[in-house]
Design brief:
Structural class of chain A: alpha+beta
Strand content of chain A: 25-35%
Number of strands of chain A: 14
Radius of gyration of chain A: 25 Å
CATH class of the largest domain in chain A: Alpha Beta
CATH architecture of the largest domain in chain A: 2-Layer Sandwich
Helix content of chain A: 25-40%
Oligomer: homodimer
Shape of chain A: globular
Number of domains of chain A: 2
Number of helices of chain A: 9
Distance between the termini of chain A: 61 Å
Chain lengths: 300, 300
């Protein structure tokens, strides 16, 4: 079919003439890369992603490839395997012509690890939070049942130790494999981990235990299958706790940002001022206003 | 060099005769697969993982590959790209001969969160570790330069505070995006976090600071881009520290298993017996012998 052949050649030409301007983002784990460039002078975004290894062609991959030994130690050896191209395709997506919005959307921000001492918190982070005045109206709407009331899985209405439990937006509730719920406290004056003291122990224990019980009752997952944690920095400054399924790599469960609720409780039990006195580490994205403040002070 | 050529051909044959018994696990996200099979009648585990897309060869990939159009909709189109094999390698690890333990290790399992009190550690976990007598010969081979000597990135030979720093097997060293190195202490009597006391502060600080410096010197990543942590439970009971790139979701960096080295140091500074007295939480896979011990005692 000459028409198809011609179309294919033209398609090939499209990427042949692609001139790379910048790598917008890439993930070594996901094995993908997002690239901004030009095709005939117009903006384009090209996304490459390696494909999952298919069981069905495994035998062929192992028998039809060439192997280059890299390292051997005892019973372990590693190789570079070069497979026939048709058994090892790369998924390619082209956005053409692309707008500035597309280009922004695919741009990734670097993260930096902030080392926040107790003094840094008081002199830099706290003033920044106060001056930003992030709106928490959407949180109050949930607590007051003005929004998302039908999504609530459980509520303890106690004004001091109570909370509302509801599914995170990232979870579609279709399977428990990626279960993700959020508990939001009724108490409104706890901005983050930094505000927690022994006076909050009853609140924290209540969230942990009733949250676990209610997830077991509603979704059948026992507490041994749950990862329960707070973020620091949180994405909004009203106390909330994440419940995700153990074994599911939920975004934001990394040790640099997540604090296991059970550890938080133990830390406060042994030192009521733990979170007021400690140096806390947290990742900040390159475009975060807080990072800018720390950079201005020469702290990062 | 005919010897090398011959060795390479033999290596190829090893996988040519590989007979698949079962897929132990696979990840569509990570693009890897763990396969159990036989080589000349003996058990082997073969791990294939696609490699991250390297910026450096992106131009070549785009210009030297063939493209097959799959779908077009408005400004979006998708293709299957077939790249030259040397630009699209698959990282291959062979464990041969493999024991039942290896096969178990790579089989996908549910995880359970263990709540290990100080007493549980002494009465259940410690006896289990001692009775298992996991071989650490491969670790000693590295420390004594009997294996992998050419992979060492940095060494501090001090017997008390020294360590060897080398790339983790999971990292191919082609890009820093998924940088992953391991520091292994010369000290041999620290099994895990549980053994760390104030006497180890100089060792821990040395690993943190010299590890960060050496990674900055060799790979150009400053400490603000590094996540430095220990695992509990570790996969082998000889003190080692993980250095991974912040922003790269390295497997095992979740809050349920990882402990930030900076936090470990702070914890021991404020309480020398912190890790001997605390309840520690850690995930255990369904087939872990330790989980069985805890189940027998009715603890999980």
């Amino acid at each position: 079919d000459t028409d198809t052949d011609c179309a294919e050649v033209c398609e090939e030409n499209v990427l042949c003439t692609f001139e790379t301007s910048a790598v917008l983002s890439e993930s070594a784990r996901d094995k993908n890369i997002f690239v901004h460039g030009k095709i005939s002078g117009q903006d384009a975004v090209v996304i490459l992603e390696k494909t999952p290894i298919q069981k069905e062609v495994l035998g062929q991959i192992l028998s039809e490839s060439s192997l280059k030994l890299q390292m051997r130690n005892d019973i372990y050896s590693t190789y570079q395997l070069q497979a026939p191209a048709h058994l090892n395709e790369i998924k390619t997506t082209v956005v053409f012509p692309a707008t500035q919005k597309h280009i922004q959307k695919y741009r990734r921000q670097e993260s930096f690890l902030l080392e926040e001492t107790a003094e840094d918190y008081l002199s830099i982070t706290l003033p920044f939070i106060q001056e930003q005045r992030f709106s928490l109206q959407w949180v109050y709407n949930i607590l007051e049942k003005k929004a998302e009331a039908e999504r609530i899985v459980f509520e303890d209405p106690d004004p001091k130790t109570g909370f509302v439990l509801l599914p995170d937006f990232k979870w579609n509730q279709k399977q428990v494999d990626d279960l993700y719920l959020i508990a939001i406290s009724h108490v409104r004056d706890v901005k983050s981990l930094r505000d927690l003291t022994s006076e909050h122990l009853p609140l924290l224990r209540n969230i942990l235990h009733k949250g676990q019980e209610s997830i077991f009752g509603t979704f059948g997952l026992p507490r041994s299958q749950l990862r329960v944690y707070l973020h620091y920095q949180p994405s909004y400054y009203h106390l909330h706790v994440h419940f995700t399924r153990l074994g599911f790599d939920s975004p934001g469960c990394g040790v640099e940002r997540a604090h296991l609720l059970q550890d938080v409780i133990q830390n406060i039990q042994s030192d009521a001022g733990f979170y007021q006195s400690r140096t806390l580490y947290c990742p900040l994205r390159a475009d975060d206003g807080l990072l800018k403040k720390y950079k201005e002070k020469g702290k990062i």
